[in-house]
Amino acid sequence: MKKVLVTGGAGYIGSHTVVALVERGYHPIIVDDLRNSSLIILEGLKKLCGDGFSFLSIDICDKNILFSVFEDHGIQAVIHFAAYKSVGESCVVPLRYYQNNLIGLMNVLEACQTFNVQKFVFSSSCTVYGEPNGRQVFENTPKHLPESPYGFTKWMGEQILEDLHRNTQPFNTLCLRYFNPIGAHPSGLIGELPVGIPNNLLPYITQTAAGIREYLTVFGNDYPTPDGTCIRDYIHVCDVAEAHVCALQHEGYVPLDVFNIGTGKGTSVLEMVETFNVVSGRELPYKLGDRRPGDITEIFANVEKSEAELGWKAQRTVEEALRDAWNWEQQLKQHD
Ligand code: NAD
Ligand code: WQD
Predict the structure, then answer these.
(1) Which helix (H) or strand (E) holds 13?
(2) CA spacing 20 to 30 A to 57: which of 14, 24, 39, 72?
(3) Any residues with CB less than 8 A from the CB of 214 and at least 6 apart, and which?
(4) Nearest to 300 by CA among 144, 54, 129
(5) For the segment 103-153, what is each residue's pLDDT rounded down to a tens digit?
(6) How far apart are CA 251 and CA 172, in angstroms?
């Protein structure tokens, strides 16, 4: 059975990936110090996966301890999720972001080189496209400088990997550029755990519907889109998780490759609200507000390369994602 190290495996995307890996016969070894997760997720994973995974509470910035994990466990592949991810927070405490996201990445890469790991999967983001010239982005669409320190950590992460592969071929590497992951496992046992007031649309919607927030503010309705609100490529987190299984199985000849992980379809903020109302049977209170600085008008993925070369395609609809997100929000209430 293949042992896969999953840094940040107790987090939102990581935990769903752990489930997908166990379902396909892998043994994930989660390395996560739970700084942005909780025992609730580990309990959910235990119910879903039994003894199919291992968990180690370790800070990946502690290089010696990280190396001892590689020494002890015979790791064959690494999926690297562990990072801080809040765009707004990264503008307030940039050093914390550069420290964790870049030192963490470099430690993991050094361990992969030292212990001869064959495969590395990096959590990148559509944020590396910045404000694109077109609405739909391809993997070879030129990258633009990101708006935030968080975005820069992903941009630099990809650059570090390019530099590492320029003169050597250390290990097969795939950068997965996620678009907007939403939803939760349909069991309601794992999902996103936003800390404090959510920045992202989906947790804000579900918390508003649950009565935790008074109303949703729609950031701008004067964009040049059909209903005036921004358009994004929202993708079910279980589809994102399955892309990682395909990445591990990918037998590409390119030592370093990049894939868009989206649905290929854009949805506006108001369309998300309307669909949420349909799946939840509620009427979400919202107000139209000012634009949020730094937001781009519209972006969605071209996914032809992922389909053709990775053999992966999103299977779930936005409706399913909203239904599962709402189900998770209601389960979370029971933990309070
Ligand atoms: P998350 O915060 O839910 O998960 C990250 C996990 O990493 C957390 O469980 C946290 O405890 C852990 N972690 C962070 N620093 C650590 C450290 N130094 N040592 C050990 N554990 C550490 O985030 P997520 O939404 O699951 O995102 C996973 C990855 O995907 C991140 O790299 C993120 O930047 C990237 N990404 C996320 C999104 C998104 O919208 N969620 C979009 C694009 C890219
Ligand atoms: C989506 C849309 C908002 C909240 C972020 C990161 C990006 C990537 C994905 C990690 C936008 C609108 C939101 C609210 C609203 N993450 N909105 N009211 O900005 O596309 O991308 O997550 O790599 O790097 O920047 O996602 O969920 O914040 O916003 O109207 O209360 O919802 O303006 O149009 P975003 P989001």
Answers:
(1) helix 12-23
(2) 24
(3) 208, 285
(4) 129
(5) 999 999 999 999 999 999 999 999 999 888 878 999 999 999 888 999 999
(6) 9
For atom 28 of ligand 2, which residue has the closest CA? 200
Phi/psi of residue 102, each to 5°?
A: -90, -45
Place of tokens 């990997």: 161
Strand 216-219 and strand 286-289: pairing?
parallel
Residue whose token pair is 């189900």? 327
Q: State if residue 104 touches ligand 1 by the CB under 6 angstroms criterion.
A: yes
**Does 81 contact ligand 1 (Cβ within 6 A)?**
yes
Stated pTM of the model: 0.98
Cα end-to-end span (Å), the chain: 38
- In the chain, the domains with their CATH numbers are 3-184+234-262 (3.40.50.720)
Question: Cα(124) to centroid of ligand 1, in Å?
Answer: 11
Nearest to 264 by CA among 322, 303, 225, 311: 303
- Contact indicator for 261, 316 with CB cutoff of 8 Å: no
| CA pair distance 260, 190, nearest whole angstrom | 24
Separation of alpha carbons 34 and 9, rounded Å: 9
- Both structure tokens of 304: 């032809």
